[in-house]
Amino acid sequence: MRFFAVFGNPIKHSISPRLHNLALERMGLDGFYTRVLLEDGNSLVSKFKSLKLSGANITIPHKEIALNQCDVVEENALKIGSINTIVLKNDQIYGYNTDAPGFIRSIEKFGSIKTAIVLGAGGTAKAIAYALKNSGASVTILNRSKLRLENFGEFKNFSWDTFIGGEFQLVANTTPVGLNDDSLPAPIEILEPLLKRAKFAFDVIYNRPTPFLNMAILNGAICKNGSDMLLHQAVLALNLFYSNSLDEKTIENHMREAFSL
Q1: Which residues lie closer than 8 Å to 105 by C-beta, 6 or more apart?
Q2: What is the tens place of the pLDDT at every residue in 103-123?
Q3: Cα separation of 24 and 18, whole Å?
Q4: Does residue 114 sit in the same domain as residue 215?
Q5: What 3-state class would DSSP assign to 141?
Q6: CA-wise closest residue to 227 among 15, 25, 24, 6
Q7: 139-197 pLDDT, tens per residue?
Q8: CATH number at residue 114
Q9: Which of 99, 159, 96 shows the shortest CA–CA distance to 126?
């Protein structure tokens, strides 16, 4: 049997085990996927090896620190600067980013996005900003503090106290704010004008209606939560665990079923 996991902090909310385990079972694969609470991101690979895992996913807040612990990192993940999937191959740890393509697949129905503002400056923000830029969008980053914005030099970027406003087709929240409470990912005096002018709103949070998306709906935006991004990045990750030997549509169908369990 092969063992897989998702590492993060917090992690108990993650439904990744449900998605992966149903797909593994339905496809007759001898594998098992679980959650691992990891407080120290520097210990990720050592923990991975001690658990004798074959592959794993990484979520908040370890996506960036995990990159430097890999032996080999795919080119796109290097450009993004964060990973969310690692695979053991030939006694080496390979790092990938399936968040970026997973995000693009999840917003296909939005059509072509020309302008976007991304809230947050972590590993998920990097993946989404990179994916949008590659698709032809002009991307702006907005974060609470200036500290992490130094990692976004190729984008227009602002902290809350330097933001001058603007109009964007898409407003994307990549922060965990709203996951466990009723907080907004930016001050209401910044956020509400953005959502009034936006056509689309996206939130990476998938397990509850967030205050961010509720505000977006009230302001007439077409909204998506993070469930489809979670699905598509998971499909790609599971295929990587099995050396891209699986049929992605078959994985997707089984994982979609898991959302209703």
Answers
A1: 228, 229, 232
A2: 999 999 999 999 999 999 999
A3: 10
A4: yes
A5: strand
A6: 15
A7: 999 999 998 999 899 999 999 999 999 999 999 999 999 988 899 999 999 999 999 99
A8: 3.40.50.720
A9: 99
Q: Are 57 and 38 in contact (CB under 8 A)?
A: no
Q: Say how far apart CA 162 and CA 219 lie, in whole Å.
A: 24
**146 in catalytic set:** no
Residue 252, H or E segment? helix 248-258
**Active-site residue, selected from the candidate residues 47, 49, 52, 63:** 63
DSSP 8-state assignment for residue 160: T
Phi, psi (deg, nearest 5) at residue 219: -95, 10
| pTM higher than the cut 0.85 | yes
For residue 73, count other CB atoms closer than 10 A to its CB. Answer: 22
Whole-angstrom distance, CA of residue 131 vs CA of residue 101? 7
16 and 92 assigned to the same domain? yes
**Residue 51 Ramachandran class (φ > 0 left, ψ -120 to 50 alpha, else beta):** alpha
Residues of the domain holding 25: 2-97+227-258
* Number of domains composing the chain: 2
Tokens standing for residue 112 = 């072509």
CATH number at residue 43: 3.40.50.10860
Rg of the chain over Cα atoms, rounded to whole angstroms, equals 18
Q: Where are the beta strands (DSSP E) in 60-165?
A: 72-73, 85-89, 92-96, 115-119, 138-143, 156-159
Task: Name residues whose C-beta falls within 8 Å of residue 78's C-beta, 6 or more positions apart in sequence.
Answer: 67
Same domain, 136 and 118: yes
Label the pairing between strands 92-96 and 72-73: parallel
Residues 45 and 72 reside in one and the same domain: yes
